[in-house]
Amino acid sequence: GLTWGAIAPAGGITMGHPVAELDDRLSRVEVSAIKIDGFDAATMGYTKAGEGYALVYSYWRCIQVLMEANGWDVGDTLDYFECSVMKSVQSYDGMPAPIIVHDEQWL
Known about the structure:
two-stranded antiparallel sheet, 3 helices, three-stranded mixed beta sheet, disordered N terminus, alpha+beta
């Protein structure tokens, strides 16, 4: 399942790194950011946001992650992501919300 509000250190993550490496890579840096559980494979990196840092996710890779995990078609996946995930992404305890980029790489 998808959970919200997990807090992890932020790191410079790039697409293509195995998901198992994400938590290890995050633990090596000295900044913190909010992580959207279940979407490690969609993490593009991080950026300065206000007084903190925010993890950056690929919108289309998030869609692909959900489709692969649930066997959903594109329409159902977009509906779920927009209604359940995008609406729940928010800042927490003074830390900026994760950023979900509508990238063209996955179009």
